[in-house]
Amino acid sequence: MIHIVFNANEVELMQKVFELDESLTGEVIQVKDDFAVGPVRDLFSAEGYQQRREWIKTTLEYSPYTDQLDIVDDKLTMHNLIKKLDEEPEEQVWIWMAQNAHDVSGYYWVMSQLKEYQSRIHVLYLNNLPFINEKGNIFYPSWLSEIQPREFLKAKKLARPITLSEFEVDPDEWKKTMNENAMVRFLEGGKKIVGKDADFYDKDILAHVTGAPQKLTRLLTTTLGKMKIKTGDAFLAWRIREMAAEGKLETAGDWEKGWKEITVALPGGTAGAAPAETETEA
Questions:
Q1: Where are the alpha helices (DSSP H) in the chain?
Q2: Residue 41 sits in the same domain as residue 148
Q3: Where are the alpha helices (DSSP H) in 3-139?
Q4: Are 160 and 166 spatial neighbours (Cβ–Cβ below 8 Å)?
Q5: CA 270 to CA 250: how far, in whole Å?
Q6: If we measure between CA atoms, which residue out of 74, 97, 90 comes closest to residue 3?
């Protein structure tokens, strides 16, 4: 059994699930790219894939993740998966996803390449399903990592083969998404992905910026903690750079030295002054 997840913390989570239920034990594969943001036109072509890698390189510039571009090779991951499915005809794949655009976009990208293995590809889509949290309260998770490992023992009952009809319809939906090539993808409900402009998350950033200087790292942490619809910190930092170039924000500091050297303020503020808050980050 091969499990596919879309977030790094879910790899460790699945290991904890295996300890509770050995029948689920298997290889865990993480698809690392976040297909919910960035260009996706002609993504299955060499040119389209390279265009996306160039954009990712831009977003990771100056970030703590500059070494990750060479680590993230989902095309090789899929190549190895398909090779294993060809060599081991009894092998099955379980795709785990929660109700968020990151997981669902990843699902579309993965399953669009696996039609030849239709009866062996299963999906567990935990959308609009109640779970019990650590305090014993019912909640509806947006991410697999919000679910306690023991709750996965119930969730496994939801595993079902992706139908032949879905293998006809879903790749076409992803093709439409690629052709639209919006910079942000939003989950409207079910598996319906709609495109949004690059400034979709700008309001979340601006809600926490004032005329007083603020460390970029603090702004990212605050924004990610407060925003209802999540995205990655590298994407938010890229948007802050873009907004600064458009005159919507002011930044100061040497980007070459990394995020911790940057302060952010509203135009006309004092971005270059010492930050008002005390920073404790290492």
A1: 8-20, 46-60, 74-87, 101-111, 152-155, 164-180, 202-206, 216-226, 233-245
A2: yes
A3: 8-20, 46-60, 74-87, 101-111
A4: no
A5: 8
A6: 97
Name the strands in the sheet holding 160-161, side by side, starting at the edge strand that comes first in the sequence: 27-30, 2-5, 93-98, 121-126, 160-161
The token pair that represents 147 in the structure block: 């679910």
Mean pLDDT of the chain: 92
pLDDT in tens, 194-226: 999 999 999 999 999 999 999 999 999 999 999
pLDDT at residue number 272: 55
Provide the residue range defining the domain that includes 8: 2-178
The phi and psi torsions of 149 (rounded to 5 degrees) equal -50, -40
257 and 164 together in one domain: no
Task: Say if residue 127 is in the same domain as residue 222.
Answer: no
Q: For residue 235, is pLDDT > 70?
A: yes
**Cα 64 to Cα 29, 43, 70, 150, 255, distances in angstroms:** 23, 26, 14, 33, 12
Q: How far are the Cα atoms of 70, 175, 184 from residue 56, in angstroms, in the given order?
A: 11, 21, 13
Q: Please report, for the chain, how many H helices and E strands are present, in that order.
A: 9, 12
Task: Say what the pTM is.
Answer: 0.90
- Domain CATH number, residue 211: 1.10.10
* Gyration radius of the chain's alpha carbons: 20
Residue 93 and residue 2 in contact, taking contact as beta carbons nearer than 8 Å:
yes
pLDDT band at 71 (very low <50, low <70, confident <90, very high): low
